[in-house]
Structures are given as structure tokens and as C-alpha cells.
Amino acid sequence: MTGAAKSPRTGTNAASAAAKRPVPRPMPPPPRPVNPVSPTNPAPPTDPALSLPLDLPKLLTARLHAVKVRPYLADALFALHVVADRSVPTMAVDPHWRCYVSPAFVARTPVEELAGVWVHEVSHLLRDHHARGERYAREHEAHGPGEPLRRNIAADFEINDDIYGEGLPKPAGAVLPGLLDLPADLLMEEYLRTASLSGLTSDLAWLDCGSGADGRVRPWDLGPDGAYGLSRQQRDAVRFRVAEGIKGRPGTAPDGWRRWADEAFHPPQPWRQLLGAAVRSAASAPGVGENHTYRRPSRRSASVPGVVLPSLRRTPPRVCVVIDTSGSVSDTELGSALLEVAAISRAVGGRRDLVSVISCDAAAGIAVPLCRAESIELMGGGGTDLRSGFARALRARPRPDVIVALTDGQTPWPSAPPPCRTVVGLFPRPPRAQDEKDPDYVPEGPPAWARVVTIG
Q1: Is the peptide bond before 148 cis (omega within 30 degrees of 0)?
Q2: For residue 35, which of 95, 100, 120, 98 has the smallest C-alpha distance?
Q3: Which pLDDT belongs to residue 319?
Q4: First and final CA of the chain: distance in angstroms?
Q5: Strand 451-454 vs strand 421-426: parallel, antiparallel, or unpaired?
Q6: pLDDT tens-digit readout, 112-121
Q7: What does the alpha-carbon distance between residue 121 and residue 119 come to, in Å, rounded to a whole number?
Q8: From CA 149, how far away is CA 197, in angstroms rounded?
Q9: Are 61 and 48 in contact (CB under 8 A)?
């Protein structure tokens, strides 16, 4: 032998052995925790149903049934994206319009009851319960460990009285205001403010509609950057389509949904800013407060040699405020009316000499120039007929450019629009305010030619 034998652990033989050695792979992540134990999901962890795949055809059949019996919610129901997750007790939603579904819950629940759950969960999202709940928590400093459950219960109180019946059977254990002898048709915030829900938290500890109901993030949430979530603009577009569908088919939706549709995109606004903006808009309309002047000749004079043409000059408009002083207007509202007179004078540039005030019940008083709003005496206390106030305002010389009527609306109105801009500030009243002497009398609303702003 001319050389020593090669050791199997050295030289090229060792290198080839190392090349053939398997490379260890990283361990897969542990499975997500499963929490199937609840009154609605009492199966133990060893239940074979927990390993069932999601019965998607059954779930989508339930959604089609929900669309059939609640067609005004169709856009919202089809906007939800299904995510199967065994750690979800039943069904839940997040603020980004994902619907998390337990396969075991779908397997054991009848189709019609599943349709009711579809409607229930999408109702949380349409009514923006997660954002409203977080806002309530900030305003009332309600951040205790039981607060998310209280918000979920109150949100269920708000929506469940509009869901069941007419094709959607009420399931056993449905969370309704009657559990605490509370009235129906209230909002989530009203239930949270007026009722103690602590007595239900122990019995309803299983209740979990997800972060879309109370704002608290769940372990199964995919988050704002996860797949299949809707953007803020897309969510608002869905709400808008549903609201327009409800208003376009009056009588097909319950009162709660019609009320939501009327208010969803018309939040309360500061009435004083609205009134001032309405007065400024009327005062700045074409032709209002404009007059001819030779102080600055018109540029068109160059086209007519030897002739000086006047130009138009805008002067502050004259405003006449007609205040309803009938017996149906309270002293507090009259005080508010005087404050509005001062605000109106500021809206037209602070020229109090151009603002006059007329007290009017069944007859109109004298037009009083405004010097100090606090010194005006408002006379009246009888019946109401603002037509005399409008007539008095139009007889003034010079005639006003804008008439502002501050009233509770229980009055006859002029049959024809006055030859100037008109703004009506309405003191709030019940929808069907009645005359004490005539129980069948219902006043007409302000005419269409007036710009109407609700005061207060």
C-alpha cells in the first residue's frame, strides 16, 4: 500500500456525508387556542364536531334566507366576508366587516336561526356599535373589565327587538330589554345610562359578538391590515346604500330601522352656527343689498364714449326679525330668541341699525330698531298668527332684504312667498303638537320657500 486508507470521517468522504445529512426544519407554530365551552357551545374539547370543516353551503343558504326576509339589509349582508375559526363561540364580527364563524355552531344550528344570527351580527356593524361603545367609554370613563360585556348587552337590547319574527324565529336565550323590564326602542347609550346591567353579566358571560359590537379586540381578529377587510369609505358606502334602500321603500322596515336610516347620515349640528349661516346665505344672495353708485364708474363705461355708467355696490342687508310671542312659547325660548337677534346682527356685519324686531302673537307689534337686544320688550301671550308679522315687516320702509321668523311653528303661514329671503328658526316641539282648544288640530310645517333651522 502506498498510502493509508481514507477514514470515512475525513476527506471527500466526510464532505459527501455532510452534504447528505438532512437539514432540520423549524417546528410549526402551536395551534390556536380553542375555547368551545359556553352555554351556546357546550361541547367538550374531545367532541368530534370541533374537527368538522365549515359547512359553507349551509351558512350561505342561511344568508340568502336572511336576504329574502329582510331585503333592505341585502347590501350589508353580502358585504360581510366569512372567516372560519374554531375559537369563536358562535358567530362574531369585527369593525372591518369580517364575520368569524364557528364550524361547530353552524353544524348544530338550523338554517332559519342562522339567518337570524346573520341579521344580528350585521346590525352591530350598520349601527356602528363598536365606535359608539368606545365613545361612551371615553365620555363616562367606563373602562372596567366588565364594561365591554355591558356594552355588548346594551347593543343587543337595541337591535334584537327589531330582528325576530316574520321569517326569523327568536332563539332560546335571546337578549331582549324585557329581561330587565326595560322599554324597547331605546338606543345602546340610553340602556347604559338608565339601567344597571351588572345583574346580567354573570348569566350572559358567554355572550360574545366580537369587536364589531363592543370595540374590544379578540384573539381571532385579523386587524385593520388583514385580508378581506373593508376600508372606512367602503363601510360608509354600504351604510349609505342600506339607508337609502330603507327610505326608498317606506313601510317595509321596522320603526327602529327607519329611524336609523333617517339619522345615519344626518348627525345633530350646532344650531346657532346653522342659523347664522342661513342668514348669511340669504343676505349674500344675488340682488340682496345691491345698489347703483357713481363713486366708482362701471368698467363698461369704456364701451360707451361720453357716458358714465354706475357700478353696483353691495351694502349690508336689512334684516327684520319676527319673534313669536304667543302663549305656546316659553319665557326660556323668548330669552333664546333675544340671543339669536344679537347673533343675527353679528352675522350681517354688526350693523344693529339695519336689524329690526317685531313681536307677534295674533297681531303684530311695531318694528323696533335694534340698539341692544337685552333691552327689547317682547309683548304678547295670546294666539299665534305670524302672517300679520310678515305683513308688518313688508310694510316697513325701506323694506327688509331678509325676514327671520323665530317661532314654535304652531301658526298659519303666508299663502305666497314674500318678495325677500326668509329664514325660519323653529323651537323644537313634539311631532304632533296640538292646540289645547282643538285636540284635532295639527299645525302645518313651515312653507317650502323658507330656509328652516331647528333651534336647540
Answers
A1: no
A2: 100
A3: 84
A4: 112
A5: parallel
A6: 999 999 999 9
A7: 6
A8: 9
A9: no
Strands 355-360 and 319-324: parallel
Say if CB 210 and CB 93 are below 8 A apart: yes
CA gap 101, 209 in Å, rounded: 11
Per-residue pLDDT tens digits for 282-335 = 656 555 445 555 556 656 666 667 666 665 555 667 888 888 888 777 777 777
pLDDT digits (tens, 9 = 90+) for 104-152: 999 999 999 999 999 999 999 999 999 998 888 888 888 888 888 888 8
What the block records as the C-alpha cell of 346 is: 353679528
Q: How far apart are CA 60 and CA 118, in angstroms?
A: 10
Alpha carbon 68 to chain centroid, angstroms: 26
Residue 265 to residue 241: CA distance in whole angstroms: 11
Q: Does the pTM exceed 0.70?
A: no
Contact 385, 412 (CB under 8 A): yes
Q: Which residues pair with 81 in a beta bridge?
A: 98
Helices 232-248 and 111-126: crossing angle, nearest 10°? 110
Question: Quick one: DSSP state of residue 291?
Answer: E
Q: Indicate left, alpha or beta for 67 from its phi (over 0: left) and psi (-120 to 50: alpha).
A: alpha
Residues near 399 by beta carbon (within 8 Å), at least 6 away in sequence: 318, 419, 420
| pLDDT-wise least confident of 41-55, 305-319, 380-394 | 41-55
CB 60 within 8 A of CB 228: no
Place of cell 353679528: 346
